[in-house]
Amino acid sequence: MATIKFTPRFSGAIFGRAVNICRKAYPQLCAEYEFDDLMQEAFLVFQRCKELYGGTVDKPQWFMVLFGRALSNKFINMHKKCGRYISIEALDNFDEPVTDIDVGYASRLIHELPEEVRQLMADVVSGAVADGRLAFAQIKRKHNKTV
């Protein structure tokens, strides 16, 4: 009886496994890598596993375990090479204020908000409201009753 050849794909369960492994490894690697970098590494590890074992492994479960172990090992090796903390030189870029805000667009968005929400925003900014989340929840409850 011939076995059906398994062709691994990065989408679906393998992608979910990659996300879970990246989330687990991210706290140790965040000083030098962003989450997207880890996902890119996961894809590269997947491609390597697919090239090396794609024709050999005939069960999806086996490939999943193989990929998971290879990715975990890759992150362990990356962790050994990177530092634990962000360097002071890397923090120099954070001193600049954010200037990429489109004031006209933000103003238009605020203008389109309901009057109660705009008033709440003004009260929170001025310090008149201590807990904006509580006040917003009350507005939301009031709005849901009228709809």
Work out the strand percent.
under 5%
State mean pLDDT (0 to 100 scale).
79
What is the number of helical segments per DSSP (H or I, 4+ residues)? 7
Terminus-to-terminus distance = 63 Å
* Sheet/helix structural class: mainly alpha
Number of domains: 2
Shape: elongated
- The total count of strands amounts to 0
- Radius of gyration over all CA atoms, rounded: 25 Å
* Low-pLDDT windows of residues: none
Which percent bin holds the helix content?
Answer: 55-70%
Structure write-up:
By secondary structure, the chain is mostly helical. The protein folds into two domains: 13-89, no CATH class; 101-146, no CATH class. It is built from seven helices and no strands. It has helices spanning 13-29, 35-53, 60-81, 88-91, 103-112, 115-126, 132-146. Helix 2 packs across helix 3 (60-81). It is elongated.
Give keywords.
mainly alpha; 7 helices; 67% helix; single chain; 147 residues; 0% strand
Outline of the structure:
This protein is mainly α and 147 residues long. It has 7 helices and no strands.
How would you summarize the topology of this molecule?
Blueprint: H1 13-29, H2 35-53, H3 60-81, H4 88-91, H5 103-112, H6 115-126, H7 132-146
Helix pairs in contact: 1-2, 1-3, 2-3, 6-7
